[in-house]
Amino acid sequence: MNVIWARSLAVLILIAIGTLAMYLTVSPQAALGLACGVLMALLLYYLYQINRLWKVLDAPAYGDIPSALGLWGEVYYRLHRLVKRWRMQVLQVEQQHTRFIQAIQASPNGVLMLDDADQIEWCNEVAELHFGLNARRDVRQRITHLIRRPEFVQYLMLQRYDEPLQMRDMGEHKQNVIAVQVLPYGDNRKLVLTQDITKLENTEAMRRDFVANVSHELKTPLTVLTGFLETMRDLPVSPEDQRRYVDMMLTQSMRMQHIVEDLLALAKLESDMQPPSQDRIDIAAVVQHLVHDAEALSQGRHAIDTEIDPTVGIRGTHSELMSAFGNLVTNAIRYTPAGGRICICLDWQHGHAVFAVKDTGLGIDAEHIPRLTERFYRVDRSRSRDTGGTGLGLAIVKHVLSRHHAELRISSEVGKGSVFRVVFPTDRSVRQ
Ligand SMILES: Nc1ncnc2c1ncn2[C@@H]1O[C@H](COP(=O)(O)OP(=O)(O)OP(=O)(O)O)[C@@H](O)[C@H]1O
Ligand SMILES: [Mg+2]
What we know:
The chain has four domains: 3-102, no CATH class; 107-196, PAS domain (Beta-Lactamase), CATH 3.30.450.20; 201-271, Signal transduction histidine kinase, dimerisation/phosphotransfer (DHp) domain (Helix Hairpins, Orthogonal Bundle); 283-431, Heat Shock Protein 90 (2-Layer Sandwich). It contains 13 helices and twelve strands. The protein has helices spanning 3-25, 28-58, 70-106, 125-131, 135-138, 143-146, 150-158, 198-234, 239-271, 283-298, 318-334, 381-386, 393-403; strands at residues 110-114, 120-123, 165-170, 176-185, 189-196, 303-308, 312-314, 341-349, 352-359, 407-413, 417-423, 429-431. The chain has a five-stranded antiparallel β-sheet with strand order 2-1-5-4-3, sandwiched between helices. Strands 6-8-9-11-10 form a five-stranded mixed β-sheet, with helices on one face. A two-stranded antiparallel ribbon has the order 7-12. Helix 8 runs antiparallel to helix 9 and helix 9 runs parallel beside helix 13. The chain is elongated. The chain binds adenosine-5'-triphosphate (ATP) and magnesium ion.
């Protein structure tokens, strides 16, 4: 028997006992009067409590649950318990929902949900950025009314979603490449995922350019070599011509060797996971070596100076830095006409060791400066090639320096000259 029945029965038994006592002690009429009066009071009390309960149940939101004595107290207590449990469940669901939304918002990919009529139900901030949408304003709008690009409309219509769609000129600045993948779910609903693949695309473009450049760079000397070999095979050639041809073939094969050596050096730097050494570089020996090589290359056509602060030192891998500095000095000689000055400097600036190569040469136009460290990039292709350049020198320099966390700063003025500065990080800069 539950508590309602037990309490109701107890009340009825009490009324019955009272009525019986009245019947026995006073009179049957008095007993009847008492029974009617008590039952009427009980009915009124129940009606009052039903009215309170009705108000609680009819309220738009659950307010405070009233309290009462006895049987109604039990009813309200249970109602209170039920409401508390519901509130807890609603709270849990709300928290789960919030966490779910936060997780999707934290995703680097865009997420957009479409209903069965391709209307936007919800989207995260990344999807807003990728598609240029506004989640609040555009909700319940048909997606194809907002994104009208024919390739996207067709992709949605054709319903062939096994391959993602690539969309160019997207994002805030209309410069990104976005991969869009649609995943159907539920009753004809769609989940649209977007991913910014601009970097991936750029890397792929760089790889394609690189392969094309290598092939192009090797093709020219190979064509020259083949041409001479064919001439020597098919035509009678005088001993002097033969010697001249062999010399020219040797130049071309040395050029190819130079390219391959530079490419191997780059590959080695890229694959080397070991950080450069922290050994202190013998600056005096390095500078002596650089000056010696510069003089050999210049053959007296340039004035070569040094300005070295003897208190400044550098920590790093000797061979790598030697190759980087050597490259900068070689460039200075090659791109400075005869009579120019070249200065190899080392000084201390704001807590950093700074190595610099200054020249009074051709100079470089500002538009080329950001691209100089790209592989095979040359300002004047024919001039660089004539002087034996492959366009890989500064790419190697950049790699060596980035391994040392050093920065390459280039300042230049056309017709006046250039300064290539290498700023070493504090942990690789030493001062006595
Ligand atoms: N000191 C400089 N003065 C003027 N132009 C320069 C100087 N250093 C580099 N450049 C320009 O930058 C380009 C890229 O230089 P980089 O050293 O990468 O290639 P390179 O000298 O042509 O060939 P490599 O060094 O591989 O033999 C050069 O072709 C040249 O146009
Ligand atoms: Mg060079």
